[in-house]
């Protein structure tokens, strides 16, 4: 008993320490990113040379405190808990040690210039890479860490690789600068700086929304608004997941937050468990392509490309709305197939009754989003806009009586944001390894040559190759690391064939998001399947079917940049035209109708195979860029759908 009491005491001590560290981390992030507000004194920004290792050191502690190796060992080998605790201490100590060495070397470089780099520094850099690969594997699973391991192996053995992968022999000592002692392309380089200095405010904003009641009220109101639709709670899941996902930024987080409410209701309405999970998974993952926040991906994209954040969210608006329209349409066809009818009566569950407080709580959602847009229009940076929105949500949270009764909820939300951020940094550190290797070996330029040879200069083939590679590389990864890894490798190849920088980055982002619902590693679909009590693979396949338009939309805006609205996406000599925009938008809606009905294989009746195939073929032809093809195809699509409605619509009545 004494031994158990001692373990409980240690566990509680670590938990309290983690809570405090996470809260302090959030406060440091706030003071570092906050813009200047008149007479209010500003503490930050702090020197990057100190802040990056400080954040990463705190993140290591938070990850190990929340998910220690001691727990893993105790679950698998109860008699080896002590060994797990030693691993925790060892990983933490080594992580802090390599960060301290990094800080010392950088300080020395600033004051005296870089000294001699030797094998000791190489050992430190390799040790740092190993620590973050291990921690990323523990937090996010194997896929991203395996990519990091392959990158390291390639870095040091590239001279023995065949074909375009062959590199010059590397000097082991000098590689430590590429990998670790570098504020440009290394683990603690530019990408890590973007996440720490720019993304953190939006992570806090999303966490605050979730913890202070705004997120739950948003879900309840979405259910209330859509209760008269045939799809009912399925439409509510799409609406709530899109709005909540743009703030939260994580597909799995979004599934868990909204799915626990919507999935049981979708099943109760008469939909299959796999369909319920599939709709929630694909809607939740797509929250990261929905402006104005876009789950912080737009912020990273802005910093990488130098394109203004406001320009990116304007460009992303029409494709995102088109995708969510396709989800709504797919649910309508599935409801028709199952004979599900609208239910106007109020919901039975007391916890979903909408009251006055829910409308008040909605202010916590609407105002911060409005603040972000207004701040950007006023010329604030993305980080400044995010921090301003975060400051707005704190006083607004007191509109919720639960927060007034227990204000400590705000501190808890800050602590949760710190923990979420710490977990993300483990993945970004591994992305830093990949970035370092790509920069040192010049592999992206070799990929440009390779893809140009394979595609024969065809943009369509290049996009297919990029999409497939993005799905493979993105499986199991969080969206931000997946997007960064893919765009750094394949982005240059897309741009050589005439695609603008913004269109190329949005294309990759769409496929990075889509990887979360693509089997065999469909993490969002598997999370939804666990809630729906449905087979994981079947749920993933259903998510894939319902979300099929997500895979087509990037090809459409690549060939029709007018959908992105902003001048920067047009090739030289071209400009925006309202006639072209309306034409493409009209045909896009026809495309969505055809594809959505085909994937469900139902319209006014079950579609026979020939009609399903014909609708898919016509959908493709409708979006062909040649007018002699797409206008006859559009006319044929109208004729087919009109015949179907006249022949079978009355029978359903």
Walkthrough of the structure:
- It is built from 29 helices and no strands.
- With 653 residues, it is an all-alpha fold.
- It has a domain of 63 residues.
Secondary-structure map:
Layout: H1 2-33, H2 48-66, H3 69-76, H4 81-112, H5 119-140, H6 142-157, H7 172-179, H8 190-211, H9 214-225, H10 233-248, H11 251-269, H12 273-286, H13 297-305, H14 309-338, H15 356-361, H16 363-377, H17 382-397, H18 401-405, H19 408-441, H20 443-455, H21 459-474, H22 479-495, H23 501-514, H24 523-532, H25 536-546, H26 548-559, H27 578-600, H28 609-622, H29 627-652
Short summary:
The protein has 653 residues and is mainly alpha-helical. It contains 29 helices and no strands.
- The rough form would be described as globular
Biggest pleated sheet: none
Count of alpha/pi helices: 29
Number of strands: 0
Based on CA atoms alone, the radius of gyration comes out at 26 Å
The N- to C-terminal Cα distance equals: 71 Å
Average pLDDT for all residues: 81
Write down the secondary-structure element order. Answer: HHHHHHHHHHHHHHHHHHHHHHHHHHHHH
Low-confidence stretches: none
Helix content: over 70%
User: Strand portion, in percent?
Assistant: under 5%
Structural class: mainly alpha
